[in-house]
Design a protein that fits this description.
The chain is of the alpha/beta class. 40% of the residues lie in helices and 15% in strands. The structure holds guanine (GUN).
Amino acid sequence: MTPSNTSTDSSEALVLDGKATAYAVRSDVAVDAAALTAQGRAPGLAVVLVGDDPASQVYVRSKDKAATEAGFAVSTIRMSADVTQTEVESIVDQLNADDSVDGILVQLPLPRQLDSDAVVDRIAPEKDVDGLTAANVARLSMGRPGLVPCTPAGCIEILDRHGIDLSGKDVVVIGRSQLVGKPFAQLALARNATVTVCHSRTTNLAEHCRGADVIVAAVGVRELVQGDWVKEGAIVLDVGINRNDEGKLVGDVHYASAAARAAAITPVPGGIGPMTIAMLLANTLKASAARQGIQLGSPA
Ligand code: GUN
């Protein structure tokens, strides 16, 4: 099936086009970033990359490029794989103290010798554009304003921009990670969904999914969710990025069989992936506006 967000065939799912939606978010962010720059200064984003993990390098390059295109001032700090805890923490301290830096992102995973939680928690909460510090996690769970992790925020944004309301829906989240599953569950709860969080020890996963109005698959098992797990007319968000035996990118959902039953579905690639970077920009813009004390007209 060709990704499109204008599918009209009632037997086929609406394809939630993450590339197009992310582009729209990024355009909105760029407009607001220009307004911010005119009234104060450009949003500043600092990305810390430790080591030479190939996937992390690709992600960091994409984030740098997207932020630069949105008119942000971006700096990427590269550190060798054998740095000490103290060295990484002192970089975070410097970025915390740098007034031109509004957002700090430490790309994960960090090399094994480092305590990731301690590094992340060192980030000033108002600059934590990944929403991963204990302070922002607490704010999210308490329903207080704060910065929210980018991937689950991207899931909510793609639903919002397609007019899909979670209120009263039965939502099944597969995966309980700090990056996606747990924060998405909190965001869905805040939107008045009834949320079930499933994970690797869930015994009757297929049955949970069959009862769901919305399935969010974020577990990292390729094509785990089969079409016959999907209720007719359900919404399916696929956060997985895996490679199949032919080296092709596939999600955590078996796309063709799920799309045959779903009302709407995100593809892989071109679904939630692009939304993650778009929401990083939205978070950085928000952090910058708050730090500069400037109110913007159209929050993304
Ligand atoms: N590694 C994979 N996803 C992410 C993310 O969203 N943020 C950070 N910092 N690292 C990641």
